[in-house]
Amino acid sequence: MSIVESFDATCSLVALDKSGNPLSVSPSGNDQQNVILWLDHRASEETAQINRLNHSVLKYVGGKISLEMETPKLLWLKKHLPSQWDKAGSFFDLPDFLTWKATGSESRSLCSLVCKWTYEITTDGGQGWNLRYFQDVGLGDLQENNWRKIGNVVLPPGTPVGEGLSASAASELGLKVGTPVGTSIIDAHAGGLGLVGCRVSKIDSDFSTRLSLICGTSTCHMAVSKVPIFTPGVWGPYYSAMVPGMWLNEGGQSATGKLIDHVIDSHPATPSIKGKIGEMHIQIYLSNLLKAMAKEANLDNEAFLTGDLHVWPDFHGNRSPIADPTLKGTICGLTLAGDEKSLALLYLATVQALSYGTRHILDSLVQSGYLSIRSLLICGGLSKNLLFTQTQADVVNLPVICPDEVESVLLGSAILGASAAKHFPDVTTAIKSMGGQGKVVNPDPAVVDYHNKKYKVFLKMYDHQIQYKNIMKE
């Protein structure tokens, strides 16, 4: 069996000095702190500054750049740590940093640069860094040495990198020098690759009929189209950033698994529950409790338990489709109760709210031209949560596919590695060959009308938050 390598990682910003050593991005000056995590929101002012320019580049990120992308973070570093900026030799997206460490090649992934660095591939076929944009935002010096600091060799994911594994990396990893290494991809996009080829009987397998949810701390919503579709508040369209030859739109929620954990961990009933359930996961316990509560209340479905409890889930801002990082979470319908039943209800209302967030993104995509989406695919930790997958299906009234392969992100990287090693003629063939099978969670028609009503409340909660902000500004 031949060995190949490919990397995926979060879209975090790595800073190196001119010798290739770690360079601090912290006011502490600690050079071991040389990565700005993707969910680091320090660059809020820089993000607002860039968005006020309304530059044409922003058309390809849903009309507004996100503070989770790299341009605002680079601008923050230049403004707040100018001495560090002057010492910088290169900046990498974390997946590209790993490729560089493995091969010594300074090439960059088209996925990372297009999705997070405002590298342009336009609908008229243009490709490259937009000098005017970088000059306007105050980062024009990055063009020096033909943009070497941020990348001047750009390769599609899965393309072989350099001469493969370097001697030093091979020694550290116990592998052969020259082992093929595929051009990297962002972790969520690797999940999208692993998901989109999953096959299930009687479910359309065309890539453009699927919305892929890659769930973790946050959730990314990936849709691909043969033609570019511009959706306000949804990132993209990005050409060949995930599936070769197709345009990617990327929606998302900044806190999903993290939000569920927060709701559970901050509730007063949680310590006593964990003290009695042993190895059982608390979410399983709460899901079982909800079924018992519904039976006790003579309800046909536990979804009906939250008629008076509603959540707006943007506790860490809204990524899509509103694209407003200043939004806050809201809970309507709290009581003085602090027992495990109150936690179960809040847990359920939060899961429902995250599903309404998916519907909000899907509605925006449909309104912009995604008219053929027929199913959802879900991977990550929340895909193992039956309450979450069923609620997603019920809220969007579409079947949800959960792949048999539990590590879709790793599968996506394996697809790229197999492509780099020429086991398949191209990435698309690898996706279809390695996608595997899955199981279907169908929507329950009995709860569709209920969720339609709650979705109306969900949208009103956003309207009300804006109204409250405006009142306080008067």
UniProtKB/TrEMBL annotation:
Domain Carbohydrate kinase FGGY N-terminal: 33-116
GO molecular function, one term: D-ribulokinase activity
GO terms classed as biological process: pentose metabolic process
Gene Ontology CC: cytoplasm
Keyword annotations of the record: Kinase, Transferase
Pfam family, one: FGGY_C
Matching InterPro entries: ATPase_NBD, Carb_kinase_FGGY, FGGY_C, FGGY_N, FGGY_RbtK-like
Every Carbohydrate kinase FGGY C-terminal domain range: 212-421
Family statement: Belongs to the FGGY kinase family.
Name of the featured protein: FGGY carbohydrate kinase domain-containing protein
